[in-house]
Amino acid sequence: MNDQELMRKALECAEKGWGKTSPNPMVGAIIVKNGEIVGSGYHAKAGEAHAEVNAINDAGSNASGADLYVTLEPCSSYGRTPPCTEAIKKAGIKSVFVGALDPNPKHRGAAITILHEAGIQVFENILREECAVINEAFFKWITTGKPFVLLKMAMTLDGKIATHSGTSQWITGEQARQRVQHLRQWADAIMIGAGTARQDHPALKVREPQNWPRQPRRLVVSKSMTVAEAAKTLADGVTPEVLNGTNWDADFRRLGSEKTVSILVEGGGELAASLLNAGEVDKIEFHIAMKILGGRDSR
User: Fold this and answer.
1) 124 labelled catalytic
2) How far apart are CA 143 and CA 134, in angstroms?
3) Element containing residue 96 per DSSP (H, E)
4) Of 237, 236, 216, which Cα lies nearest the Cα of 228?
5) pLDDT tens digits, one per residue of 238-295
6) How far is residue 145's CA from residue 111's CA, in Å, rounded to a whole number?
7) Beta bridge partners of 221
8) Three-state DSSP class for 34?
């Protein structure tokens, strides 16, 4: 396998941490010796061992003289865990292949310098774009202090997002609902407007798998609804947070300071328009149902 193929193996490891590592990034690593993968690892949860350390431990004595492929530049400073650069040096790694550099300007490139000074070869930007995209939310948060906002819109072929009564549940099919569950796993918070809350009474939580370890924050946007009223609109009665949406920049900076890295916006139309007009949406994902809703008053 070439360097790109081996980095894709590391990316596959990183994806095992989907939705479980926030506010840390998803990172995967493999150890390669004599053309064979002898160790692999990923970052499973904030505060636990990083991908490089797990891969080195998995390789054991085979790590000495081997190559390390890692999707994100290794950490080089002490935090909740020791720096991975020290573990790499101690293990006797010969060469390090890095996917994307650390987006944090305080640390960007620091590990490269440390490893070079230790006599370890470093090769950068192997599948850089793919390694950055998997952590696009983290990259946005660490560089701006604001969460990454993904707007999900479900609509019919004729561009409708709700019936004449405002109901928008189940416009799309099972495949789209599975995708939504996958996105909810990823999200630190789910945001909806007051109209969607009143009409759909959503639970705004990860239902699949049932034992998912981390439920997102629930945000309802309304200029008039109280927290108690908002709680009554949600399916399980869990108290959400209510935002008035009058100053998105301030709201998102506060949420970012509270380590909310990613937000999934699930509706409705007025909320979507408000966020788009404010320039706060980072990505839009359309779920288009192969049906026509019709009707002059459908939305």
Assistant:
1) no
2) 16
3) strand 95-100
4) 237
5) 789 999 999 999 999 999 999 999 999 997 789 999 999 999 999 999 877 655 554 4
6) 23
7) 193, 243
8) coil
Beta bridge partners of 209: none
Domain boundaries, the chain: 3-135, 145-288
What is the token pair recorded at 103? 């987006």
pLDDT in tens, 3-21: 999 999 999 999 999 999 9
Q: Among the residues of 95-247, which ranges form H helices?
A: 110-117, 128-133, 136-144, 174-186, 194-200, 227-233
Q: Which residues of 16-40 are buried (b: 16+ CB within 10 A; e: fewer)?
A: bbebbbbbbbbbbbbbbbeeebbbb
CA distance 262 to 161: 23
Catalytic residue selected from 5, 52, 86, 229: 52
**3-135 sits in which CATH class?**
alpha beta
Tell me the CA distances in angstroms from 156 to 168, 200, 286, one per residue in order. 11, 17, 10
Q: Which residue has the tokens 């549940």?
A: 169
Fold of domain 145-288:
Dihydrofolate Reductase, subunit A (3.40.430)
CA distance 163 to 47: 45
Task: List Cα–Cα distances, 290 to 131, 165, 217, 237, in angstroms.
Answer: 33, 21, 31, 33
Q: The pTM is what?
A: 0.87
Structure tokens at 100: 């994307």
* Paired tokens of 22: 């926030």
